[in-house]
Amino acid sequence: MTVANASVTPMMAQFLEIKAEHKDALLFYRMGDFYEMFFEDAVAAAEALDIALTKRGKHLGQDIPMCGVPVHSAEGYLLTLIRKGFRVGVCEQLEDPAEAKKRGSKSVVKRGVVRLVTPGTLTEESLLEARRHNYLAAYTEVREEGALAWVDISTGAFSVMPCPPVRLSPELARLAPTEVVVSEAKEADLAEIVTESGAAITPLARASFDSTSSEKRLTDLFKVGTMEAFGTFTRAEISAMGAIVEYLDITQKGKLPLLRAPVREAAARTVQIDAATRRNLELTSSLSGGRDGSLLSTIDRTVTAPGARLLERRISSPSRDLATIHARLDSVRFMAEQGRLSQNLRDHLRKAPDMDRALSRIALDRGGPRDLAGVRNGLEQAAEISSLLAGAELPSLINEAAQALVGHDELLDLLDQALVADPPLLARDGGFIAPGYDGDLDEARTLRDEGRGVIAQMQADYATQTGVSALKVKHNNVLGYFIETTATHAEKMLSAPLSETFIHRQTTANAVRFTTVELSEMETRILNAGNRALEIEKRLYDTLKEAILDRAAEIGQAASALAEIDLAAAFADLARGEEWCEPTVDDSRAFDIEGGRHPVVEQSLRKQGGEPFIANDCELTATNGNAAIWLLTGPNMAGKSTFLRQNALIALLAQAGSFVPARKAHIGLVSQLFSRVGASDDLARGRSTFMVEMVETAAILNQADDRAVVILDEIGRGTATYDGLSIAWATMEHLHDVNRCRALFATHYHEMTALSAKLDGVENATVAVKEWEGDVIFLHEVRKGAADRSYGVQVAKLAGLPDAVVERARVVLDALEKGEREGGTGQKAIIDDLPLFSATPAPAPRPQTTSQAEEKLAGVHPDELTPKEALQLIYELKALTASD
């Protein structure tokens, strides 16, 4: 597209000029009450939003495609476009159209992009999930040293950590950012890793990652002389943080959000969990992709959005620091023991708004009076909660939180006096400053409101003066105030002496409109009073906004404290309601669970009203530097995978600071959590099910240390029997001899049970079943020992395979087992004794016979029977049935 064309209108030339500066974004071009899109933007947006595509004028002889969305409902359209992978440049009018007209009738209103909307830079309440973070991340490498920084601009949380390339994928899986910024030089190398995590990748120029420039950007932002004020950061970490600030400056057009001081995280302080394990354990989302059915959804009893976001962080990043874990467990125990206090706290927390996100919107000028009220209401609840906690003997974590809730009296008093109880959404609507707060505002409001009464009195006076009782004083945006009467009565007002007072303005089909000098003067006074009141309120809004931003750090600390209290109370409520126990977490290599349960499966069974969940023990305590491994056998559907997962989740919950679903739990500190349960093809990357299985297994064997907990299910099942058995056997030996970890290893290869006699740290366990008349009954009990067989044929029968297939499978299985007992492979028995065409045919359908009772019923019409005849028919049918 080129601007150099005589047929291009000034407005379209302006659009093309602005679009040329934002080629990679759809341009929302503000025109009055609509955002319009043109050319390729319009075509793409119309398809993505399912809205009408029209046209407006011509360019280079071709129609210009056009579509648009209303400004008042633009947020919903923005969300749709962002979710479909678009970036949007919001181009606003930067001056009043009246100013443009002063430059000439053909002058175009000045416009400019005030914001680039991208997945990682959303702040609007309607565009965000209240209970989840929306992270923007940046990754960089400086002299072979990697770093990952991330920020949630809707809350201001800003973090950074060292991150070698091999750790990037697991960390992105942990954080689940919506957008990742990388150097354009690294885009090709990192694209697959980033997109695999579900995030959008955004390249920036290399200069944006320059560590020297980045440090200058950061010190300017935080108004400090050196970043050492916040800790010691590597050059790579400075580079990643600086790139985020640069990107925010680009997308927010110089108006940076309110960011908290950066926090450096150490990888060694959290449990290492890779992407496959998070997916297999369904920590924050189920395998289907939704939140329902996940661990997070099952245990979330928080009552505030910040508390829910904190819960997700804890579940995604369990701690490896014993002091931290014990402090969190202490706070949960306190809340569990103080049931009434905990319930009172939760009642107040339910009334606490999301102060973090309100602060962010205020700082970016995307807030309104309700955000001011959100801060006020949040501080009010903070004061109430502080009072409830006063005098109690608090654990350290709750005590720290309680201290952050006080000290806001001055700001709270200011906001309480200044704001009405329920303010409007937008400042331009007015009416949010409380009466009595500002004398000038009260005076303007009085004149405005009394002016309305004066208008009513003037109408009564005019009706008396003219003798026209139907006369009305009305208002519209074109004429302002005017006097309206019917055409019949207008003749009187158009004649002397009334015509000297009433000045004709307009004649319509059904009425005639007049004005008077007195009415015009009153209109000016009323209009000026209304505008003046609105201007005063806007000025007061800015004053209150600055008062809040001056104490943003303290408000942020109070918001974090409320989230901490919410989470502790939620965990306590969960523990009381579900009968969870406090785990013992120490520096040993113990793993002793009594009566462990799977929280998600147990809740699901309860909702279905079915059988109770069967609790099981698990003892994997490793001693003398050895491994501790259970080799678990048993049929499919018996509960092996559930048993594996529940023990991994119990360890995770304990180190997240929660009580756990068990009668008793003793867990030695877990450094890594690995799960390889189930697999599917990865067609996009050309990987078969077996290849996916092997890649995940390789990651475990190459990374697991002696403090890891590993759960493995059916290693080697995706290939030939002996190939699979050999791989599973070697994997078990490696876990035992090299990794020396705590592990649960489920398998159908019964030959592997012999390893318990060879490897000191291996014990056999099985899921008990009971056979009854050829069927199998699952007991869901895990016991020491080995299963004698897999019961696959019985499970196939339960699944509904045709009887002929099940019977044929039994015959083939007997032949194979007989061949094994006789020292062969069973293959000869299949070839010689069970030729292909000896497969049992499906049974022929039995001939249909009709009984006497059925013949009798065929001629009966129920609607024609009397009660006596119906009773007689029953006796006859009973007799016929007996004779048949």
TrEMBL record:
GO terms for molecular function: ATP binding; ATP-dependent DNA damage sensor activity; damaged DNA binding; mismatched DNA binding. This is DNA mismatch repair protein MutS. PROSITE patterns: DNA_MISMATCH_REPAIR_2 (PS00486). Residues 839-862 are annotated as: Disordered. The keyword Lipid metabolism does not apply. Coiled coil: none annotated. This protein is involved in the repair of mismatches in DNA. It is possible that it carries out the mismatch recognition step. This protein has a weak ATPase activity. It comes from Actibacterium lipolyticum. Residues 853-862 have a biased composition (Basic and acidic residues). ATP binds at residues 634-641. Belongs to the DNA mismatch repair MutS family. GO terms for cellular component: cytosol.
